[in-house]
Amino acid sequence: MKISPLQKARNEYQPKTPTILTQEPNKVTVKYREDSAGNNPSEGVKALFPLTFNSKSVEFIEGENSSADTPRNVAVILSGGQAPGGHNVIIGILDGLKAASKDSKLFGFRNGPGGILADNCVELTSESVAPFRNTGGFDMIGSGRTKLESREQFEKTVKVFEERGITALVVIGGDDSNTNAGLLAEYLADIGSKIQVIGVPKTIDGDLKNEQIEVSFGFDTATKTYSELIGNIARDSNSAKKYWHFIRLMGRSASHIALECALQTCPNICLIGEEVAEKGLTLDSIVETIVSTIVERSKQGKDYGLVLLPEGLIEAIPEMNTLIGELNTLLSEDEDYFSTLTTFEDQAEWVNRRLSRDSSYVFSTLPNEIQRQLLMDRDPHGNVQVSRIETEELLVDMAATAIRERKSRGEFDGKFSSLTHFFGYEGRCAFPSNFDADYCYALGRTTALLIQNNLHGYIATVKGLAGEASEWSPGGAPLSQMMNLERRHGKDKPVIKKALVEISGAPFRAFAAQRESWALETAYRYPGAIQYYGPGEVCDATSITLQLEQGRSSAM
Ligand code: FBP
């Protein structure tokens, strides 16, 4: 395999680590934090986790740990979408295990949770992981979206682990995978198994965060990658002065990615799904806002601009949310019949007859291609896959129609020429930024310490992330503490709540304070490519979102 000069250099990069993680593992112990883990779960949640419910999070401090040297056989899986830094988590776990006992072993189960069920694993050694140090991607062992959630799957996991002598499982995943990790932890405690479960917060979407988790890994690199591309497009737009660029960004229901990219690049418009939902903004009103900005800029001779939108916008618009909800129900209730309809026309006619009058009307007003996308396969939860709906095309289509109408009424004499883009996959496997490389390695070492301190049903945490890496505080928080009860299919289900953009939060407020001037001025900011070597303020800066959330208002 050919290795690029950057990969070679990155393989040699030594992640910056919190001071406590530089100690020998047998000289590090846990201290229970006095603050509660934050979420204050309901009695219902406590009742569902009687054995692993623990209100205390932990941090690591210097102290004797006599069980650190016990050899451990640990399994690790990568679950869900790729996020930069996953390899460093695994390498951090391996280094942490080996630092305590050369006889410890780490097994990577391939292609996500499904790898456990298929008993498909490989032992990871210092030699085999070396080429993956500080690289992006999940290709070391692969990832997958199979869910580990049923009792049969839990039983199979125990069987596979017992046969292999595995005594701990690390689940590197998002809110869903960590919810299931919490349920598995409770099951294991219930059957009297000694297998430990530890979660690690991963997702570029940035929606797995709470009082204990400051940010999920991958968000930093992905948003920096998108912001570089957006900045380049903005500069192209400001040079050629002839295109309006509409850029959709990944992130599922949460708009953290779009918001961070807006703070980084100062576009003319950035739509935030959470604001749209909170204010109940209709599709027409959103298009009207875009069109008025196009018209106003045109009056100033600026027939060009930049619009950012989150992929979850489509679900946030009230009438679309109702329509999508109805479609999800119809398609799951009559999945078998629906799958026999082979043409789009038959499918559209079938749903149209079953939708409510309002939703049927909304559906009929959408371009065919968007209708088609709304009828595509659902995700494993039965939800529409927002990454596959080209909302940017919908907005361009509607804006172009509105502009033609204004033109015909003599209200617009400029030009509207548009280009659309979708950024998602471009950022999920980038070489991790220094922040993600350092954070992920610290998460891995923290995970090893949680295992060596015999903790079970915890998620690894590292706090104080806007500060110097040497001062970060590694620890863990009970997964059960992060659960909320949500009504799913008529039953209360414990889930780790997705963190959405808070309209009252510092990042949104910083954006809202400036967006009007960004709309008409051309105030683009050009972040440039991620830098791995050079001055700290260039190479080690964290996301603006994280800095603002941690009270660093100078970030903007
Ligand atoms: P996770 O939630 O698993 O981290 O995945 C994030 C994500 O990249 C979303 O932003 C996007 O909607 C989705 O994955 C795309 O899924 P897929 O990789 O299956 O196309």
Task: Provide a compact summary of the structure.
The protein is α/β, with parallel strands linked by helices and 556 residues long.
What is the name of the CATH topology of the largest domain? Answer: Rossmann fold
Please identify, by name, the CATH architecture of the largest domain: 3-Layer(aba) Sandwich
Using the alpha-carbon principal axes, give the shape: globular
Residue ranges: pLDDT <50 for 5 or more in a row?
none
Tell me the domain tally.
3
Describe this structure in words.
The protein has helices at residues 5-11, 43-48, 86-100, 114-117, 126-129, 151-164, 175-190, 219-240, 256-265, 273-279, 283-299, 313-316, 318-333, 335-340, 344-354, 357-365, 368-374, 391-408, 425-428, 434-452, 506-520, 536-539, 544-549, and strands at 28-36, 56-62, 73-79, 105-109, 121-124, 143-144, 168-173, 196-201, 244-249, 269-270, 305-310, 418-423, 458-463, 473-478, 483-488, 491-496. Helix content is 43%, strand content 16%. Strands 1, 2, 3, 4, 5, 6, 7, 8, 13 and 14 form a ten-stranded mixed β-sheet that branches. The model has no long low-confidence stretch (mean pLDDT 95). The protein folds into three domains: 37-218 and 432-488, 3-Layer(aba) Sandwich (Rossmann fold), CATH 3.40.50.450; 220-311 and 389-428 and 505-555, Rossmann fold (3-Layer(aba) Sandwich); 318-385, Phosphofructokinase, domain 3 (Arc Repressor Mutant, subunit A). The chain is globular and about 80 Å long.
